[in-house]
Specification:
- The complex is a heterodimer.
- Chain A has 3 helices and no strands.
- Chain A is mostly helical.
- Chain A folds into 2 domains: 35 residues; 32 residues.
- Chain A is flat, with a radius of gyration of 19 Å.
- Chain B is α/β, with parallel strands linked by helices.
- Chain B has a single domain, classed as Metal-dependent hydrolases (TIM Barrel), CATH 3.20.20.
- Helix content of chain B is 40%, strand content 14%.
- Chain B contains 10 helices and 8 strands.
- In chain B, strand 3, helix 3 and strand 4 form a beta-alpha-beta unit.
- The longest helix of chain B is centred in the first third of the chain and has 20 residues.
- Classes of the chains: A mainly alpha, B alpha/beta.
- At the A-B interface, helix 1 and helix 3 of A face helix 4, helix 5 and helix 7 of B.
């Protein structure tokens, strides 16, 4: 399946991207306007949000997948598997 | 375009949803067994539920010429109760020979606990003994990556499991390749906020191709759209993808997977013909006489 040419993708999705970025900005502003916002600086979710925003700046690709991993629990390879019966 | 919704919980939807789905081209759907909105107290509650899935919903669907298929299990959320789960697994064989049953599902993990993993394995034991297809629920949000890897560990660690007969559902960007690279079928769930948007689903298709992958609405108790698959069709058209590729994802792939079921009854040919020709107008070719 051939993806859209870059310019076509930008033309088609610019307004949606603008809308979604504004929504994120509005959520962050909402948090900042709330009482005791400073106390949230070390909240793990705020750290995840900041990490995700940094990935958005990174132009090396695969942003969606990398952001998914930021919001994911780590896999533990040594977890105890049940035995088939 | 005809389509199949391979994962939707019609028990939680009104009859009007069947009508709208039919009007948008749905010819078949499959409904996995899932959580009732509360934790059931007994195996008898599941007996009633399995009866609903195998008797009531097929009749409701048939009013709109939609073929209804179902899957049977105790879902991952209620699997935390191991005693109840084993009682439910013991009654599943009573319903496996109902004509619309495709296999065991949607089994999986919810919070990736030890009890959930034990009951998942016991469902796999049943499915391999009775040669059933399996439909797998992967956890949501932060639990998805870890849970998907745990599920694949268990499936790959069991020599009786044939990946061609397993559908790993609710895949997203960080789990789709885990499923496909290990030989499984996979499904993308088009559900607001907590799962995948239509746009991201098409992005995933563009990255991994259209082999062994399908899409579903997972319409259920939460805010969800039973017409999500037609929206995916529109998004694929918006990006200029070939009709054949679209049909492959929304029709051919689910049908190919379902056809592996031991109880599969082949459809009448008319129902599976692609709707690619526009019927000729009865007026075509006739001269129209205008009188003043």
């Amino acid at each position: 399946m051939t993806p859209l040419a870059a310019r076509q993708a930008l033309d088609s999705y610019f307004l949606e991207a603008r809308c979604k970025i504004l929504e994120v900005a509005a959520v962050l502003d909402r948090i900042d306007r709330g009482r005791d916002a400073a106390a949230l600086a070390e909240d793990s979710r705020m750290k995840q949000l900041r990490q995700a925003l940094e990935i958005l700046h990174d132009e090396s690709g695969g942003r969606a997948e990398r952001i998914q991993r930021v919001f994911s629990l780590e896999y533990e390879p040594a977890w105890e598997r049940p035995e088939p019966r | 375009m005809y389509y199949i919704d391979p994962h939707i919980h019609m028990i939680s939807r009104v009859t009007d949803d069947y009508q709208r789905m039919a009007q948008c081209g749905c010819v078949a759907l499959s409904e996995p067994a899932f959580w009732a909105g509360f934790d059931r107290g007994s195996a008898e509650g599941f007996r009633d539920y399995f009866r609903h899935l195998t008797e009531v919903e097929p009749k409701r669907a048939a009013q709109f010429h939609i073929r209804h298929y179902s899957w049977l299990c105790i879902n991952a959320k209620e699997a935390e109760n191991v005693k109840l789960s084993r009682e439910v697994i013991a009654i599943i064989p009573e319903y496996l020979n109902k004509p619309n049953v495709l296999g065991i599902g949607e089994i999986g993990l919810n919070k990736n606990t030890r009890n959930e993993a034990i009951i998942f394995q016991e469902h796999v034991d049943l499915a391999t003994k009775t040669n059933e297809l399996m439909l797998i629920h992967t956890p949501h949000l932060e639990d998805k990556y870890k849970g998907t890897r745990m599920i694949i560990d268990m499936l790959k660690g069991d020599r009786r499991v044939n990946p061609e007969r397993v559908l790993i559902d609710h895949v997203e960007e960080h789990t789709v390749r885990l499923a496909l690279d290990n030989g499984f079928w996979c499904g993308m769930t088009l559900y607001p906020i907590t799962k995948c948007t239509v746009e991201r689903a098409v992005d995933i298709l563009e990255m991994v191709g259209t082999d062994k992958i399908m899409a579903n609405s997972a319409g259920d108790w939460g805010k969800s759209n039973p017409l999500a698959v037609p929206e995916l069709i529109q998004e694929m058209k918006r990006r200029g993808h070939a009709e054949s590729e679209i049909r492959k994802v929304v029709f051919d792939n689910p049908l190919s997977f379902f056809r592996q079921s031991a109880r599969w009854q082949e459809w009448h040919e008319e129902a599976v013909k692609p709707r690619t020709t526009i019927p000729k107008s009865s007026a075509e070719g006739r001269k129209v006489k205008v009188t003043r």
